[in-house]
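So, does this match?
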Amino acid sequence: MQGGMPKAQLMAGDAMNRALIRMAHEMMEQLDPIQEVVFVGIRRRGVPLAQRLADIIARYEDVALPVGEVDIAMYRDDRDPSEVRISVQEKNLPVDVTGKIVVLVDDVLHTGRTVRAAMDAILDQGRPAKIRLAVLIDRGHRELPIRPDYVGKNVPTAQSERVGVQVAEIDGGDGVALYDGRRK
């Protein structure tokens, strides 16, 4: 999937699951009222992670939290608009986000540009009471003043390295690995 051999395995499936459980417990302690939470996964791998977090919370809090997804392609600031295929960009949000606590979920936080684009997409749909950010991996190198509220693991990386996340729902297995070089 990522191409090439990983430089290091950062997380296997069990460690990834433990990180998500810990993040969910932090959310249960801090997000009040929990019934007002809406999870929004950033397409692609943020979506199954958002669903997993909602499922973990449901086991402990006996509440089914809505999970949606957002495609940020049209909101990115690092692509020439003429290069982006113009199509209806889906924002599959299961409820109106106005007045809700939105938890944006992504696999890796790097520059912050993806998160900024996701916030723009959410704000086009309504005005949440709060937006919180949950990421499985925070690798640093921010270009925008964005920080996560819930982090599975902080991984200091070189700018030239890549972090590859695999989730069973998309890739057939769970894991996080560090790779040399940029994705081609």
Remarks:
- Confidence is low (pLDDT under 50) at residues 85-90.
